[in-house]
Amino acid sequence: MTSTVASADRYYPVIATVLTLAYLAGIVGLQLPALEPFFRPLIPVNLAASLALLLLYHTDWRPSFLFYAGLAVLTGFFVEVLGVHTGYIFGQYAYGSGLGYHLWAVPPVIGLNWLTLSYCCGTVCDRLPFPVYMKAIAAATLMVGLDIFIEPVAIRLDFWTWFGQPVPLRNYLGWWFVSLALLAVWYGLPFQKKNKLAALLLLLQFVFFVGHNLIFLLQSR
User: Fold this and answer.
1) For the chain, which terminus, N or C, has the lower number of CB atoms within 10 Å?
2) Residues facing 195 on adjacent strands
3) What's the maximum distance between 2 C-alpha atoms anywhere in the chain?
4) In the chain, domain spans
5) Residues ≥6 apart with Cβ < 8 Å to 84
6) Backbone angles phi, psi at 195, to 5 degrees
7) Residue 174 in contact with residue 90, Cβ under 8 Å?
8) Distance (Å, rounded) from C-alpha 74 to C-alpha 30?
9) Interatomic CA distance for residues 29 and 46, integer angstroms
């Protein structure tokens, strides 16, 4: 795995450039009616590809990390299944067609996205000069901060719907507590929290969703 990361390092400028252009193109393509039908099916592909590239730069593949990766994907997916079918965790919502194929009314790619976001936030916040429990709190709060920008875009792009109701506070509390639980495990397990691509990918997520929100705001005026 060390040789794989070393090989990937040589192509980092290319990968970083392509990833950046892909996210910027997604902003433009999903906003233009002529291009939107071509870009919409690429949303779940982009989420899966982003995780694949992130893992390409992962440096420590010991069993504890594999356990975390599996835990994050399964927890993320099944907490959404529970949430959709009961409304207990995040409130009453349902997934639309924007994230592709559904299993038990939830797109499996959402589990991958929980891994991506917790990984990126956990890696970025590991640099903070805080005790471990404060890092977990900061990373969970960062994830919720991103979700604040995700929600309006997700509704407009048919990722999910709140049935015409405002996004409930329960959603953000649910995100925070689930994120905190995952990140407590992340920081508690003995593997290196280093990844060359994590900060850039998290920044691109913010740029993508903040960019869409700004466009929606301008369109409403």
Assistant:
1) C
2) 58
3) 53
4) 2-219
5) 93, 94, 95, 104, 105, 106
6) -160, 125
7) yes
8) 29
9) 13
Of the candidates 50, 60, 173, 63, the one whose C-alpha atom is nearest the C-alpha of residue 113 is 50
- d(CA 99, CA 5) in angstroms, rounded, equals 30
Q: Which two tokens stand for residue 24?
A: 């910027």
The answer to whether 167 and 151 are in contact (CB under 8 A) is yes
Percentage above 70 pLDDT, the chain: 97
Number of other residues whose CB lies within 10 A of the CB of residue 187: 17
Gap between the Cα atoms of 204 and 214, Å rounded: 15
89-136 pLDDT, tens per residue? 999 999 999 999 999 999 999 999 999 999 999 999 999 999 999 999
Q: Which of 127, 125, 71, 80 is nearest to 104 (CA)?
A: 80
Asked which of 6-15, 22-31, 54-63 is least confident by mean pLDDT, the reply is 6-15
Q: How far apart are CA 207 and CA 209, in angstroms?
A: 6
Angle at 89 between CA 51 and CA 43, to 5 degrees: 30
Helix axes 132-156, 198-219, angle to 10 degrees: 40
Tokens of 152: 């309006």
Question: H-type helices in the chain, by residue range?
Answer: 2-10, 12-31, 36-39, 42-56, 63-86, 109-125, 132-156, 169-188, 198-219
95 φ, ψ (degrees, to nearest 5)? -80, 145
